[in-house]
């Protein structure tokens, strides 16, 4: 049985949106090349707490980080998913990367309904944030 990511490309191109299956939600990252992605991570993610409800996970501050795709993915499955390309035109790759790199190490409000990780990466790729998770 082929791994889960077989229905996306296994070799992402710079500017691709990466969808990662996390236990409670889909996490999104933007591939920038050389094995690295830019993604939004909650600032205090390092402190696992069993009492944290799923809603509070999503209302904290977050930081934009450039990390290795394999570190972000861990044991989760992932795929390239530029699903909005059929309704929107992506910006030129150089522009996507330039926009993304401006955000590295910046703090952003992290609110799953307003500015979640999918909004962030689609904003970079298309110039406007879109998310199916919210609708």
From TrEMBL:
GO terms for molecular function: N-acyltransferase activity; phospholipase A1 activity; phospholipase A2 activity. It comes from the Eukaryota. The keyword Hydrolase applies. InterPro entries: H-rev107_PLA/AT, LRAT_dom. GO terms for cellular component: cytoplasm. One of its GO terms (biological process) is N-acylphosphatidylethanolamine metabolic process. Residues 17-133 form the LRAT domain. Signal peptide: none annotated. Keywords: Hydrolase, Lipid metabolism, Transferase. Belongs to the H-rev107 family. This is HRSL1 enzyme. It comes from Ptilorrhoa leucosticta.
